[in-house]
Amino acid sequence: MPRPTDDTDPHSPAPSPSPQGPVLVTGGTGTLGRPLVDALLADGVPVRVMSRRPRAQGDKRPYEWAVCDLKNGIGLAAAVAGVRAIVHCATDPFREAAVLSRLVEAARQAGGPHLVYISIVGVDTIPFSYYRGKREAERVLEQSGLPWTVLRATQFHNLIVTITNAQRRLPFVFAPSGVRFQPIEVSEVAARLAELVRGAPAGRVPDLAGPAVHTARDLAEATLTAYGRRHRVVGFRLPGGMGRALRQGANLAPDRAVGTVTFHDFLAARTAAAGPAAKPREG
């Protein structure tokens, strides 16, 4: 039995994107996708959420829903049909460029809507496999012939917290020596993406970075304090080219410190929202 696909007749004329159509948000239920959908809806922009999972029962929010698996393309043609623009927030650490290539081809067959891509500061200089994949995905978009926009951002606040909290069962918390981060609030990245997708295609736009640069140790210690943990932070030297690039600040954009929510603001809001559960007992 042949595998189902979303292939269309290559001889059929491509439809034109509808200026009244929705904005498709891939990964619309993820860390960045959720606040982006919120920002677009708040601005009165029609939205179509793409997810691998069916829409939750009882979800009455005013958006369309498209079930699609970007890894194999099933459901993709229907997901992109009639959209005015696409914001690609879904991510695949192992097949980033291949997935974006599939999305680009579907967008081309749908008439070439504006495609906005979120990338990371330093992808062209930090020798890390995921970053290489992001840079290759940027090239796919640059060479696609579609109208496109690429925004690079620094690490999100919640990623820094996740890295520290993932070590909560270890006797120590490890932080790379000499490495600094400039974390940004994800809702500020979402707001910028919402602005970009409403505008004209702009190519590579200026980077977006958090309001302050911190050492990895300071961020780990601030997280531990906020969560009421008493682990000692131990430094280690990250080896290889990746460690060298990070120590040189390739992941930073101090001249683009446009974020306003500090890491300490984020921690205070997160632990307040979580209540007593944010501070588990030691042991």
Provide a quick synopsis of the model.
This protein is α/β, with parallel strands linked by helices and 283 residues long. It contains nine helices and eleven strands. The termini are far apart.
Task: Summarize the SSE layout with pairings.
Blueprint: E1 23-26, H1 33-42, E2 47-51, E3 64-67, H2 76-80, E4 85-88, H3 96-109, E5 114-120, H4 129-142, E6 148-153, H5 157-165, E7 172-176, E8 180-181, H6 186-198, E9 203-204, E10 214-215, H7 216-226, E11 232-236, H8 240-247, H9 263-274
Parallel strand pairs: 1-2, 1-4, 2-3, 4-5, 5-6, 6-9, 7-11
Antiparallel strand pairs: 8-10
Helix pairs in contact: 1-6, 3-4, 5-7, 7-9
The low-pLDDT segments are 1-13
Cα(first) to Cα(last) distance is 55 Å
Write down the secondary-structure element order: EHEEHEHEHEHEEHEEHEHH
Order of strands, main sheet, comes to 3-2-1-4-5-6-9
CA-atom Rg in angstroms = 20 Å
- Overall 3D geometry? globular
How much strand content do the residues show?
15-25%
Please estimate the helix content.
25-40%
- Overall pLDDT, averaged? 91
* Number of helical stretches of at least 4 residues: 9
Major sheet summary line: 7 strands, parallel
How many extended strands? 11
Secondary-structure-based class equals: alpha/beta
